[in-house]
Design goal:
Structural class of chain B: mainly beta
Order of helices and strands of chain B: HEEEEEEHEEEEEEE
Strand content of chain A: 25-35%
Radius of gyration of chain A: 17 Å
Structural class of chain A: alpha+beta
Oligomer: heterodimer
Number of strands of chain B: 13
Number of strands of chain A: 13
Order of helices and strands of chain A: EEEEHEEEHEEEEEEH
Helix content of chain A: 10-25%
């Protein structure tokens, strides 16, 4: 049996401070913060830090659609034209405060799995939000500990709750090492269940 | 031929049969990866750049040119950065287009006939020259 190529999973918070680099090999800025979308529990983009460069242009954020690849060492963009002013990324006031962090994850059977503390991304050139890191509730038997919950391809979000299928509880991981396989197995289960 | 072997080579004017400069470095441009310019030292004039197109021959003992006039200063912003060493490929970090660091360039293999870069060499890898998609101040970017 051959081992599948390791999938690159990373926590959104790990991206903070990482360089943004163009495909031409030029440094653009550093990631300052991750901006989550209110709807869908997905990433809207990143705010950037590079005061010298932005003092005139004010194009100090990077929308998710402008990202070419997210890796262990850099966030790659085609060129600097993908940058936009931060207000276009998060137009509503306090949008960044009202992000997915701190939301409760609820199963579709109505069980509270815990509070979101981080978001797990699948890196590479196909970018995907694959899970949440939650501070587990009593439901999971590991109350108080941080665990990783896989996400289906689409998530329902109300504003206070992120709804995941109940089967997600069978695919919870303690660390990123085994989480990629857990996400794959979980999504396969959902597809089989739906067909 | 490796950059490490080709550096310090004498540049000889074939009209006067005199040594006019020394090869100090190579300016590589991507798409397709090639040596576009040579950076020269020990020059008599103000310019330190020599276009690959103006090289008569890149031989095992000397680089030949037809006239000193082809040794010239930078013509544009890109060449100025090259002359300032900002785009030097040796020592530059290599990033994949997915944002993973693959080490630093320790040497480059090129075809002395055409100037084409055949591979980038790092401590652990040999990366085909065709994979070079960008070379900037921060990194050499290679396709997967």
């Amino acid at each position: 049996m051959t081992t599948p190529a390791p999938t690159l999973l990373l926590r959104a918070s790990e991206l903070i401070g990482r360089p943004v680099v163009t495909l031409s090999g030029e440094f653009v800025a550093e990631i300052k913060d991750v901006v989550f979308e209110r709807t869908g529990g997905r990433i809207a983009g990143f705010t950037l830090r590079n005061p010298g460069l932005f003092s005139r242009s004010r194009k100090d954020s990077l929308p998710w659609a402008g990202v070419h690849g997210v890796g262990r060492d850099a966030v790659m963009v085609p060129d600097e034209t993908v940058l936009t002013p931060a207000k276009e990324l998060a137009p509503r006031k306090k949008a960044r405060k009202a992000d997915v962090l701190q939301d409760r994850v609820l199963t579709d059977h109505g069980r509270d799995l815990g509070r979101v503390v981080d978001v797990v991304l699948h890196g590479g050139t196909t970018l995907d939000v694959v899970g949440y890191e939650v501070e587990a509730s009593e439901t999971l038997g590991t109350a108080g500990q941080r665990v990783l919950i896989p996400l289906p391809d689409t998530v329902a979000v109300s504003g206070e709750h992120l709804i995941v299928p109940a089967t997600a509880t069978e695919f919870v991981s303690d660390d990123l090492a085994g989480f990629g396989a857990a996400v794959d197995a979980f999504r396969r289960r959902l597809r089989e269940g739906a067909s | 031929m490796l950059f490490s072997q080709a550096r310090k080579r004498a540049v000889v004017n074939t009209a006067t049969a005199t040594r006019v400069a020394r090869v100090d470095g190579f300016v590589v441009l991507p798409g397709p990866a090639r040596v576009a310019l040579l950076r020269l030292g020990k020059v008599s004039g103000a310019g330190t750049l020599l276009s690959w197109d103006d090289v008569q021959g890149f031989g095992p003992d000397a680089v030949t040119v037809a006239t000193d006039a082809v040794i010239r200063p930078a013509r544009d912003g890109l060449e100025q950065r090259a002359e300032d060493n900002d785009l030097e490929i040796l020592g530059k970090r290599v990033l994949s287009e997915q944002g993973t660091e693959l080490g630093a360039v320790t040497d480059v293999d090129f075809d002395p006939e055409t100037g084409a870069v055949t591979s980038l060499i790092t401590k652990t890898d040999t990366i085909a020259g065709q994979r070079l998609i960008g070379l900037g101040g921060y990194a050499a970017v290679v396709s997967s």
